[in-house]
Amino acid sequence: MITGDEADRLRRAYPREGNATPWMLWGPYLAERQWGTVREDYSADGNAWDSFSHEQSRSRAYRWGEDGLAGLSDDEQRLCFSLALWNGRDPILKERLFGLTNGEGNHGEDVKEYYYFLDNTPTHSYQKWLYKYPQAQYPYGELVAENARRKQTDSHAPEFELLDTGVFEESRYFDVQVEYAKASPRDVLIKIRVDNRGPDAAEIHLLPTLWFRNTWSWLGTDEERADARPGMAGTAAPGPGGVATVRATPAASADDGGVPMTLYCLGPDELLFVDNESNAARLWGAAESPAYPKDGINDHVITGAPTVNPALVGTKASAHHRLEVAGGGSAEIRLRLSWDAAVVDPFGADFDATFAARVAEADAFYAALAPSTLTDEERAVQRQAYAGMLWSKQYYYYVVKEWLLGDPAGPRPPASRTRNADWIHFYSADLLTMPDTWEYPWFASWDLCFQSVVFARLDVEFAKNQLRHLAREWFMSPDGAVPAYEWSFGDVNPPLHAWAALRILAIEQELNGGEGDADFLADIFRYCLMYFTWWTNRKDAGDNNLFQGGFLGLDNISIIDRSNLGELEAQIGRGVELYQSDGTSWMGMFSLHMMEMALQLEKLGRSEYARLAGTFFQHFVFIAEAMNSLEGRSDGQLKLWDEGDGFYYDALMVRGDPDQYLKVGLRSLVGIIALFPVAKLDLDALTDGGRDHELTKKIDWFERAHAELVEQATVSRDGENVHLLSFVKPERLKRILERVLDEAEFLGPHGIRGISRAYLDEPYTLDVDGARLSVGYEPAESSNGLFGGNSNWRGPVWFPINFLLIETLQRYHDYLGDDFTVEYPTGSGQQHSLRDVAASLSQRLTSTFARGADGRRPVFGGSEVFQEDPHWRDHLLFYEYFHGDNGAGIGASHQTGWTGLVAELLHGLREG
């Protein structure tokens, strides 16, 4: 068990006999982007990116959330704090991060800024964030125009990035670092440091900003709006270097009465006040508009307009600091956000002492968390990965019923506004772990499972609560489906919740000396029962244990749009049915994890679950039979396993007279996922030696009644009562791994690729009743926008699937032992155990971020600034996916979400 002040705070932060101390009341719960989200989309055509654009965001009040730089808020995002900047040249204040929308640029959905999550603790007692702000005018138009040009002229061209514009030449930029340290749960100390990396003196305006999320404009009557309106009042500093204050008072009608907070500001030039309300005149040409709207501070600073309230009252306020920073020099400002309105000396000796203590406590916490065998380089990677996970905790507010009906104060939504209409029960006002806080500022169900596993070492209670959120009746649909993500709750993600629960339980037992939370596991098991039933009823079209889940999170990995078979049907004029190798494999994996959960619950004293272990063993056996015997059901015409290739594929049936049966013979992760359903079952380890156990009885019955089915799903050794449950026999496992571990196919220098590199020069083609389809190996971004072209599973390395494969190999080794070896890499002549192969794959993945013998980090690719500049090279970015041939980061640059799995890989690699 980890000890120390931060660990103690964390234990006190959760209710135990009603005496929790709310250390997580304030945290990094503010997104980097709220504009362009589904929640803010009130359009007729459902184009969220365009209906609420970056251009509008400075002038238009948000309905469902807020965004900002280095954002901080309370856990209901009522009161928010962030930093705005101006370099004296930009046309607007830098209040939020800019990036390309879905329809812009050659790949789109890409943030065009450089910012870093440098540190954070589980209670957010200490946080550190860094932003690189050009001294030249920010090139908004150039980024959009050049990326659009590349999209039109060369689909393989790399993204045109901010560094490519030249605005960082001669290091003419500011490093702006924001640090938070909590003196108490409601007393947050703030330091903002500016370092001028350029050769000449330059001016910068810092505008730390406090505001209330707008919860009043959406109400029906003037009286209701007035009653729900909070307020702020300022007191100017008595003189140069004095302390100014902003008093933020919640509305009298606030549910809990609210806690007033005071922002103490040391030595600002002025306080600027407006209201966090839309500038209706600018946006829509309305005659009536607030006198001091949301963008009033922007207009006042940029143009000197009289758009701030001279009475120093409103619902949004900035402390304006004008700083001239010498070339190579630095400057710092200090603030304090506290419930105490009468702090005698807010910036006295306790200010620096608190920061020093919190930094030391953070160092101690992470030193205890990391394995002692990690190198300094690996510790730095792991700590920044954890920081990114913690900064990605967000307040997620979305009430589908209200969103569909529209706000009383606004116009009635158009009839076309039907997104997520089948999820009218959905209600979220929760702190959730997000994949990313700019590109993906919303939860995604299978991402959340991976993220929760990483969180388990940091904060196991938070990790468990994340999985519980998805099980709540206000999240999960009445028929048992899980909401995928806000763009379409009805999409299907791989069912990983049982796997995540078992992983979290194992980590908790490791941390607590063997103790496990039976209530948590039982909660998730009951929820998974419904989810499993939904899959069985809805995704097994032929009632034959062959599952069809659409793209299953793998977007464009197939040659066919698996989420929209109608497009192919329209093209060929015939109906089709797709049998998915990975959909069936995910369900086999789900079955085994449900069986394991039932057995774990029995060990934890819940004997009533023992019977259910046999039920899910039965499900697994039937799914394994379907996976491996489809050929027999279709007179040899349709199969998922290809004996000649030694690989699993999807299969397609084209309806007609007669029906056509086609192998979708693209070697991809789809076939590798068939390895994932695997478990070692020791019947002697069950209650009473397993003799009268319900699972033993079920297996005995199966062996008598359906020996041929059990034989397909299990491997056993003579004289032993220990079995391997798997779709694949050891000899078939070797054949699959022969391709997976081949550097000319799947094995890249930094992990397993999405599809085989064999298709680099000769793309795979398939003729479907006259329609010729083709897919080639693409190690980086997708060259087309077809069904998920903004992501790419056609070659790059993705951490989540690699993580599951590594765990799978470890599970096989647990049964097969050191005597079972495979050639690794294929063609090398070197034989290795599966445990050693798993360790080597972990090393390949983690080496993506570590500085190699040449001093370079693969993740930074060919960027010399990232690789060599001392002010850049140690600040890591955890990308969405990675170049299949060199490990360079691609996609969302801050998706610490599932790429944060590197922290767990480092832990497992060094702990053995």
List keywords for this structure.
912 residues; alpha+beta; 6-stranded antiparallel β-sheet; 35 strands; 32% helix
Describe the structure concisely.
The chain has 912 residues and is an alpha+beta fold. The chain contains 26 helices and 35 strands.
Strand elements, count: 35
The low-pLDDT segments are none
Task: Give the helix/strand class.
Answer: alpha+beta
Mean pLDDT: 94
Strand order of the largest sheet: 6-7-8-9-17-13-12-11-15
Shape: globular
Number of helices: 26
Q: Residue share in helices? A: 25-40%
Main sheet record: 9 strands, antiparallel
**Into which percentage range does the β-strand content fall?**
15-25%
Q: What Rg is obtained from the alpha carbons, in whole angstroms?
A: 28 Å
